[in-house]
Amino acid sequence: MANPIKILFLSAEVATFAKTGGLGDVGGSLPKTLRALGHDVRVVMPAYQNIEQGLASGRWGLQAMPGGLSVPLGIGRLPAGVFETTLPGSDVPIYFIAEQSLFNRPEIYGYRDDAYRFSFYSRAALDLTVALDWRPDLVHAHDWHTAPALTWLATTGQGVEHFQGLASLFTIHNLAHQGRTPWEIFNYLGLWTNALVEEGYGAVNFMARGIYHATLVNTVSPTYAREIMTRDGGADLDGLLRFRHYDVHGIVNGLDYDVWNPATDERLAQTFTVDELDRRLANKHALQEWAGLPQSDAPMVGMVTRLDWQKGLDITGHVIHRLMNNFAGEGQFVVLGSGAPEYESMLARLAHYHSGKMAAILSYEPNLAPLIYGGADIFVMPSRFEPCGLGQLIAMHYGCVPVVRATGGLADTVQDMVTGFTFDDYSAEAFWRALERALYIYNVDQDQESWRALQRNGMTANLSWERSALGYQQLYEWALARAGGH
Ligand code: ADP
């Protein structure tokens, strides 16, 4: 086993406590897996409203740390509470920074003072390690909300013995949210630094800061790591990322097998394993019944998605049209999604027009999604860009063969003709050709042996968090070597 590493893990989202997307999944799963590898990992996040309520009602075993913190800021010291418990199903300590005026609000993000909220949290999280008399070897910071910690460590923190020479890893989950804010934030944090080219006069860009200050940087797939270094994919930070290109890596997220397991998933009509693929048919029938579609053996194409520009819905409309008009034989289409009104109305109209063959469920239904993954034959994910993507991983694990655009994490996880079907160009034509290839193989061989092989390859692929955690362990070791510690 590798040497145990002391990791301070900073994330604004940690499932099950707070989650809006993939960041929350990573925050909930990766620390547990690192712990299982023998590392001393401790997680810190803000105490949002539900955490304050959880403390009051005795939920999650939350305890308030006596004395709390007196957080040293540029403007003086401010008090903060600290709540603690362990990540469910593990002995990983998780600490919550409590400051009612900043975090006791209904939402996680979206406030005008977000930069101050997360700067306070970041600085308090570092100070907590002093209060605990625990010096981490490395700080693993996620997305812009935690970048103030890296800026402070690289500047004022270098003068504080406890923090001198700490290694750090900055993980980019969503390059679109960069945390731009006026320069005064650095007075608040009590640090002095030079402006970066990306920041412009009088402005701070915390995403850029994270990339600039961290010992190493990674994102959630190798292909996305390359894409964000291009002008098209770089959200105006591609120059900075290219400047650091030797230090920018990609690690695909894992799938939480405790949550996603077709052999035990109670949300399915019928559980199944890789050796019992015939049992999937009961899920297809249950889904057809749920969606008001006739029971048919024709291939069923499924989609579960946020209805967002990112997800490729404009090229999907045309492909649905061809599928519904039997351009590749009979087929059914079920989509579960919610989001932008223009896509909702497009899908509702198509479903109305093709009723009896297509259903559109335009809401967020976590209990229905597994029936699509476990019942549909083909799963489509034609994303314009996709940092990692979870849908295709769940689909593969549930024997639903994915047809995906080869971008970001989709390119890294779906192998054409081995575990699914991929296409390159962002166009309805390319999407249709890939779907047509899938439908051809589904229809052509009567005993379905080739299809079964695709399903089995997907179901037995190693999509585990263990594999991802070994990648992170490697990056930690490189970062420690670089920082000269350990
Ligand atoms: P993103 O995080 O960009 O939305 P991912 O593929 O990484 O995309 O994750 C999407 C997750 O959200 C999957 O677990 C998917 O099943 C789930 N999901 C998306 N839309 C819905 C919906 N309308 N109902 C239920 N689950 C959904």
Q: Structural class of the helices, strands and pairings? A: alpha/beta
Overall, the morphology is elongated
Could you give the count of β-strands?
A: 18
Distance between the termini: 15 Å
What small-molecule ligands were found? adenosine-5'-diphosphate
Q: List unreliable stretches of 5+ residues.
A: none
Give the percentage of residues in beta strands.
15-25%
Q: Average pLDDT, to the nearest integer?
A: 96
With helices defined by DSSP (H or I, 4 residues minimum), what is the helix count? 18
Q: Main beta sheet, described? A: 10 strands, mixed
Q: What is the C-alpha radius of gyration, as a whole number of Å?
A: 24 Å
How would you describe this structure in keywords?
about 475 residues, about 40% helix, alpha/beta, single chain, six-stranded parallel beta sheet, about 20% strand, ten-stranded mixed beta sheet, binds adenosine-5'-diphosphate, 18 strands
